[in-house]
Amino acid sequence: MVATLAAIALYLLLPQRLLIAPRYVLPALECLLLIPLVAINPKRLTRQAKTFRVLSLTLVGVIVVSNLVALVILIHELLYAGVKDGRPLLVAALQIWLTNIIVFGLAYWELDRGGPVSRTPAPRSSLPLADFRFSQDENDDAVQEVADGASATSDWVPTLMDYLYLSTTNSTAFSPTDTMPLSTRAKALMGVQSVSALLTSLLVIARAVSILH
C-alpha cells in the first residue's frame, strides 16, 4: 500500500503537460482500486480470490501505462516542443524514473510464483513456476553460513523488498544482475523497464542538462 501510494504521489507531482487526463482522474481511479485490496487484507496478505488478483494486476497495469505515457510525452516535449527550462524536466524525469522502479517492483511481486499470498503459506510443491531465479534459490551448496539462508534449507521466499531491489538494479544496469528472469512475461517486463529507464537516463536527462547549459 505504501509503495502504491508513493507511485500515485509521484504521478500527482508531475507537470500538467505530461499528464494524459486531468491531474486527479488517474490517481482517483488508482485509489478506488486500492481500497478494496486493503479491505480484503487489512493487515497481512493472507486471503486471495480471483477478484483480488484481477484488482491487484489492474492497479499495477494502470500505474505502469500512465507512467510510460508520461515518459513518451516528456520525450516528445524535449524533441519537438523547444523546451527552454531544463530544471522541471530533470525533476519530472526523476519522478518518472522512481515511479518506474516502484511500479515494476510491484509488478514482479504480484506475478512471481502466483503472487504474494500464494508464496507465503503454500508448500513449495504447490507453487506455480517461478518467474525469477534469486541467488538464494541456488545457494544450498555454498559455504554453510550462506547455505543456511538458501531457499531449499530455510524455506526462504522473496519479499517486496527483494522485488524492489530487482527493479532498482534493472533500472540502473539496464539488464539483469543477480536475479535472472525465467518466464517470457518476466523477460518482457524487464525489457520494457530497461528500455524506459535507458530513455529516461540517457535521452531525457542528457537533453535537460544541455538545456541548463
- The proportion of residues forming helix, as a percent range, comes to 55-70%
| SSE-based structural type | mainly alpha
Kindly report how far apart the N and C termini lie: 40 Å
Enumerate the strands of the largest sheet in spatial order, edge to edge or round the barrel: 1-2
What Rg do the Cα atoms give? 19 Å
Largest sheet: 2 strands, antiparallel
Q: In terms of quaternary structure, what is this?
A: single chain
Structural description of this entry:
This protein is mainly α. 65% of the residues lie in helices and 2% in strands. Strands 1-2 form a two-stranded antiparallel sheet. The protein is globular.
Features:
mainly alpha; two-stranded antiparallel ribbon; 213 residues; 65% helix; globular; 9 helices
List the SSEs and their pairings.
Elements: H1 2-12, H2 25-40, H3 50-80, H4 86-111, H5 116-119, E1 132-133, H6 144-147, H7 151-154, H8 160-173, E2 180-181, H9 184-212
Helix pairs in contact: 1-2, 1-3, 1-4, 2-3, 3-4, 3-9, 4-8, 4-9, 8-9
Summed up:
This protein has helices at 2-12, 25-40, 50-80, 86-111, 116-119, 144-147, 151-154, 160-173, 184-212, and strands at 132-133, 180-181.
